[in-house]
């Protein structure tokens, strides 16, 4: 049973790693896609178009500085890269633990740090999105962030 548990943990962490590695690669290959979404959220432009009454109430929250989306995007990609590296290291460590050549506890600890980082990224998006009221104009993004936060949390709990 311990082997099945370790195998499940390896697969769960490996899936998080795969998803985030692809996300980082896409952010590097096509940075305008997510950077433009960030700019739209920070400026509240879509909120102004879709929900003018909400925009009027919260327009003070907008960040209109033209460099802000670029800086925030770089910070996000750096965080995602770091967490992706942790998740890959955690997955490799778990594979080595399955093979009996690495400590199970160390492998789980590295994997847990990666899963915690994954969960924190998406949780931060939810907190930041609340400030910008993206639930009123970027509902799909908010739903995705909720799902990703839950996915990371479930994987983190599986490691304990």
In short:
With 160 residues, the protein is mostly helical. Helix content is 83%, strand content 0%. It has one domain (2-158).
Detailed description of the structure:
The model has no long low-confidence stretch (mean pLDDT 96). Helix content is 83%, strand content 0%. By secondary structure, the chain is mainly alpha-helical.
Topology record:
Blueprint: H1 2-29, H2 31-43, H3 45-50, H4 52-58, H5 68-98, H6 104-131, H7 139-158
Helix pairs in contact: 1-2, 1-5, 1-6, 1-7, 2-5, 5-6, 6-7
| Biggest β-sheet description | none
Q: What shape does the CA trace take?
A: elongated
| Tally of structural domains | 1
Low-confidence stretches: none
Tally the helices.
Answer: 7
Q: How are helices and strands ordered from N to C?
A: HHHHHHH
The helical percent reads over 70%
End-to-end CA span: 15 Å
Number of extended strands: 0
Query: Which structural class best describes the helix and strand composition?
Result: mainly alpha
Mean pLDDT: 96
Q: How many whole angstroms does the radius of gyration measure?
A: 18 Å
- Beta fraction of the residues? under 5%
Keywords:
160 residues; mainly alpha; elongated
């Amino acid at each position: 049973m311990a082997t099945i548990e370790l195998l499940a943990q390896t697969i769960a962490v490996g899936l998080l790693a795969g998803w985030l590695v692809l996300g980082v690669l896409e952010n590097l290959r096509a940075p305008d896609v997510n950077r433009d979404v960030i700019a739209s959220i920070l400026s509240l432009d879509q909120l102004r178009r879709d929900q003018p009454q909400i925009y009027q109430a919260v327009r003070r929250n907008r960040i209109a500085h033209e460099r802000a989306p670029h800086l925030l995007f770089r910070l996000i990609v750096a965080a995602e890269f770091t967490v992706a590296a942790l998740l890959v290291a955690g997955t490799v460590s778990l594979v080595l633990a399955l093979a009996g050549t690495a400590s199970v506890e160390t492998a789980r600890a590295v994997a847990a740090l990666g899963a915690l980082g994954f969960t924190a990224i998406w949780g931060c998006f939810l907190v930041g999105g609340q400030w910008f009221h993206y639930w009123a104009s970027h509902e799909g993004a908010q739903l995705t962030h909720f799902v990703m936060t839950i996915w990371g949390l479930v994987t983190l709990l599986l490691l304990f």
